[in-house]
Structure formats: C-alpha cells, structure tokens
Amino acid sequence: MSDEDAFLTGIASDRADRTRLLVFADWLADQGDPREEFVRTHTRLLDMDGTESEFAGLDKVWNRWVRGRPSSRSRRTRISDRWLDAMCRVCTIADVNQYTLNGPRSLLALTQAKIFGPRDHLDPTPSLRLNLYRGRAGDFGSPFDFVAQTVLTDLREDPFRSREIAAIDSCFPITRGRFWQSWLGHLHQLREAPPLPSPEADYPFLAAQYIDGGDNNHGLVATYVNDYFALTWSMRE
Known about the structure:
Low-confidence stretches: 69-74, 105-111, 161-169
Number of strands: 6
Radius of gyration: 18 Å
Largest sheet: 6 strands, antiparallel
Mean pLDDT: 77
Shape: globular
Number of domains: 2
Number of helices: 9
Strand order of the largest sheet: 1-2-6-5-4-3
Structural class: alpha+beta
C-alpha cells in the first residue's frame, strides 16, 4: 500500500478526524502535490454552514477541484473517485455497484427515518412536493441504507437503476454549507415549516451529496457522526 493509499484509508475510517486531513495536506505539500489546496479547503469547509463571509469563495475552489456539477459531466474529475469516496461522498462507487446488482428491490422499508411533518408539506406553489428526514446513524447499517430508505424511495425516477457506472454522474458530493443553504432556502418557502435542529448542534459533519432523480426530482443528504439528514423535492406540472 502506498503512503497516499494509507492516508486515504485512514481518512475514510474516521472522517470526523480533522487532524488526519491536515497531516495529509502537509504530506502532499512535502511532495509538491497541488492537491494540497483541495485537502486544506475541504478541511475548512467541513465546519462551515454557508453563512460565513469566506464560504462562497472556498466553495468555488472546492467545486473546481471536484468538478461534480451536471454541466461538467464530460470533464475529467481533478480529484479521483478514490479520493471522493474517502473524503466527500455519502454514496460511494461500491454502494452504487451493489445497488445496481440487487436492483430496486434492494431498497429497504422506510422504518427508522423520521419525516418532519406530513409527507406533502404546504407550500405557496402547490406543485412543489417537499419531504424532510432525520435519522439516527445507529439505526442504519450504512449511510447508503439511509439514502435508500429516504431519498431513493422518494425519487420517481431512480438514478441508480442503470447498470452503467455512469449513473454516478447524477450523484455528486456537495459541501456542508451548500446542503444547509439549500435546506434552509426551501424551508423559507413553506407556510408550515417543521422544526429543525441548528447546524451547530449536529457537529461533526462527515459528508453531503446531491442526487438527481430526473423528471424534476431532486435529493440532498448530509451525514454526521450521530445523525443523518435528507431533503427531497420535486416539481409537478
């Protein structure tokens, strides 16, 4: 195992350990590796909720490295899948492969995740369907189990039904601040918003991801050491 692989394996085993990331960044700097910038930026963003003055600039730097937005699908990612799986993704390549092998029937029954309020929240735009979920990490075998029981069951068109690995193009990592900005932005549109914990209460953050289900179906998921959160929304004509 190379030194880089050893670092990535350690980071994946304990994403809450910010010190390990900084040691990795120092090691990359010693190697003259420009990816040091990504690791340091990623480490800073882990504890930002999107309200900080420097967030927007750091978020842009992070996304330039990850290049995970749908408009960038044809470009090569500057950070490899191995890095993204270890540091950034909720749903890894292995998760997606397992799901496509088992098919849609591998989805578990929705039993452990709590929906805040009724499934269809009241919104000034009747065509918007919004669901908010929170689950305890200990109630799920893995973060992907939570995704399968919440986001994937809500998406009318499932991005993982394809047996091609390209399905990951519709499932890319986002920063902690981007997740909370999106969630709070939707809450402000609701006439009856369910109570939610503040981001500060859910420290430490581990990873967040956007999932595009097609046909105006969207999902976000964020994982913390003790809690998982998900938001799904869809537009209906």
